[in-house]
Each structure stands twice: as structure tokens, then as C-alpha cells.
Design goal:
117 residues; mainly beta; Complement Module, domain 1; four-stranded antiparallel beta sheet; 10 strands; 37% strand; Sushi_SCR_CCP_dom; sushi
Length: 117
């Protein structure tokens, strides 16, 4: 007799799952990735398909809006990492960051520079 398969019935708002497949098998894991400016409502982004066809943890993960919203666009730079509290940038080729500041922080509802240590 075969194990049940898991499926994703609800698309995740403001985020997505990886890998994206039609069905998932027992012990297979998926990761939830939230869009920039959104944060996962839990510590672990991983869900695991159980032998009975349910996901563990059972609750559907949600991507919630960061209090600061989406990090600002910076000319000649791109986002390399973002959470609801921090955003980190890298420069495109042939550009350097002014003041060596590559990370900004969400404080009091606004994105602010972090001085390098």
C-alpha cells in the first residue's frame, strides 16, 4: 500500500513555495519564501509532507507585511537579503557603496541606515 501524497491547495499570499510541484511525497520538504517587504509569521520556513498526506506543521504559513513595507530601491544596487527588520544590498558591477553602508534596518516604522561596525 502506498503513502498518501501532499498537495498545496492554497497559494501563499505575498510569497511562494519552493520547489513547486503538483504533488509532494512523504518526508519531502518545501520552503516558504516571502516577497520583499513581507515576513513569515513563524521561525521555520520549512514544511514537511507526512505519510498521511498532511503537512507538518499543520497551520498554513502566512507572509505578513513588514511594518516598514518594501525596502527602497537604490540606484545601481540590488537587494540580496530582506526580512521585515533588515534589508541588505549589493552594488552592480563597477559601483561601490557610499559610506560602505550595505544594510538598512526597520526602526520606528521607517527604513534607516546602519553604520558599519
Amino acid at each position: 500500500f502506498l503513502d498518501e501524497v501532499c498537495t498545496i491547495n492554497n497559494p501563499i499570499m505575498n510569497g511562494h513555495y519552493t520547489p513547486q510541484q503538483q504533488v509532494y511525497y512523504a518526508d519531502q520538504q518545501i520552503r516558504v519564501e516571502c516577497n520583499p517587504g513581507y515576513e513569515l509569521d513563524r521561525l521555520s520556513p520549512v514544511q514537511t509532507c507526512q505519510k498521511n498526506g498532511t503537512w507538518s506543521p499543520l497551520e498554513i504559513p502566512r507572509c505578513l507585511r513588514s511594518p516598514c513595507g518594501e525596502p527602497p530601491s537604490i540606484a545601481n544596487a540590488y537587494l540580496v537579503n530582506t526580512t521585515s527588520s533588515y534589508a541588505q544590498y549589493a552594488c552592480i558591477e563597477r559601483y561601490l557603496l557610499k559610506d560602505s553602508i550595505s544594510t538598512i534596518e526597520c526602526k520606528q516604522g521607517r527604513w534607516q541606515n546602519i553604520r558599519p561596525q
